[in-house]
Design goal:
homotrimer; mainly alpha; 2 strands
């Protein structure tokens, strides 16, 4: 059985959770586009030159608080999902126990869903920070397994 | 034959297109550096403390529209090329038909080249949005193949 | 012997350096959180609504120069570490000579450590630009090896 093959349950789970996390990140990008159209907040002149509000052409702007919030949430997804996917792939190659690996993958996905909700809805802190740190801890646990098998 | 080996035509194509896309992203970063030097627009004091314009030392600034445009284009590349490369690797492991895979990889690269040109030259919309969404659709198609083989 | 297995010294080294680089990037994110708390600089209302300075609630702000410096350093890590990890994995699959590969991995890690120090401490240029370009050159060398084996 190939370690990096869908017959390996650890890999099949990793592939599923990684893909869901990446699709979620792309979903956030699409949500930003939708919110820009709804709120008429565009960052570049070519995005709004044909939109007329009152008697004036819409001007580009970069300081809508909600759009900035979504952008930061999206950026935080990028900076956490890619470490998960890359360290996760190396972690799968350390041949971990399937149930342990599945637990880590699920906690990570859950922590990132909570993070997004906490950030977008501006829930009271430390909900956002705690969910962020949960994800970071999962990455660090997987990284530790990889470092023990890797060599300088 | 190894699935993740250059003897597998799907992998060999994936490796080629992924690398070209990453080099293109790095190329954009280098273009930003070149444009900063040309336009004398630097974000940090240590970058411009030795440059004298008129009788004054050049001051750092973050609000050059063209530099901001390049930075956003570069960031958009990061947020799309890495999903392509990571989902793409998982997609290669689903053992797709070589000609179908090649078609997806080529459309993605083409869509990203059009995106960069549309963004940097500020071409009329929806050229930028359409090329962006084309890339997103390709990632989603590959993701769908992975999800069908992966497990919860 | 599996190419993507810890018995392969090239892969074992790649796994080690990639993981260290990703942990370093996450470490920068944690440093940003620590600096925000220390300097009382928060970007969103829910982060600081319970903090009282003088007789007023702390207001969110995005223009602390040191925090911006850390954020840009972190972003630059993202945009260089992920190309290293993804191109690096493809490079490992080209079966390079172990000592050559190890040399590239070490130079890359060193260049990124120098970059971080140069950026965070605002060392005189071109220390930051040179360390950045060193990392870029390493990625390009590995990319070149991949492109020679990949196909259109």
């Amino acid at each position: 059985m190939e370690i990096l093959g869908f017959d390996n349950p650890v890999f099949a789970q990793f592939a599923f959770y990684s893909t869901v996390l990446i699709l979620k990140t792309i979903g956030l990008a699409l949500l930003i586009i939708r919110s820009r159209i709804k709120r008429k907040v565009f960052a570049f002149p070519e995005d709004c030159s044909q939109i007329i509000v009152g008697k004036h052409h819409l001007k580009p702007t970069s300081d809508d608080a909600y759009i900035e919030r979504l952008r930061r949430c999206h950026l935080n997804n990028l900076e956490n999902v890619f470490p998960f996917v890359t360290v996760g792939l190396l972690y799968v190659l350390t041949e971990p126990e399937a149930s342990t690996a599945a637990l880590y993958f699920r906690i990570f996905l859950l922590s990132r869903v909570v993070y997004d909700i906490a950030f977008i809805r501006a829930l009271p802190q430390p909900s956002r920070t705690f969910s962020y740190l949960t994800g970071v801890i999962i990455i660090c646990i997987m990284a530790w397994s990889v470092l023990q098998k890797g060599t300088l």
